[in-house]
Amino acid sequence: MTPTSPDLSGSIPVRNEPDIVLARQLVRKLTQELKFSLVDQTKMITAASELSRNTLVYGGGGTMEWQLLQQGVRAGLRLAFVDQGPGIPDLELAMKDGWTSGSGLGMGLSGSKRLVNEFELDSGPGRGTRVTITRWK
């Protein structure tokens, strides 16, 4: 489940609370391997924590896919949180600070977007959700 140096991508399940902890630990390990600054490590770990929790709570569970990136001299980490849940009917509303379909603070999606360099949200009613984030060193 944990990557070794030759591995450039992989995935882990997000099906329960302990999986969220494992996702955070994996992101910490990957960001350390990429030699991200402590601030950038914390940003990526925080975003991964929020999005894995959303995957579990709102999507009914799914997976976290990871990919180590290299673009010329810059390195990055891409994470995708994928579920087959009910989907998000109004993406614009879901991205507004303070909006929540549950009992949270409504900062998961919009807050995560602010913590990363690239953010993609693909969702719709009845087709699940895929949130992809990327942070570059």
UniProtKB/TrEMBL annotation:
Domain Histidine kinase/HSP90-like ATPase: 40-134
Classification lineage: Bacteria, Pseudomonadati, Pseudomonadota, Betaproteobacteria, Burkholderiales
Parts of the chain that traverse the membrane: none
Source organism of the structure: Roseateles aquatilis
Pfam families according to UniProt: HATPase_c
InterPro entries xref list: HATPase_C_sf, HATPase_dom
The protein's name in its UniProt record: Anti-sigma regulatory factor
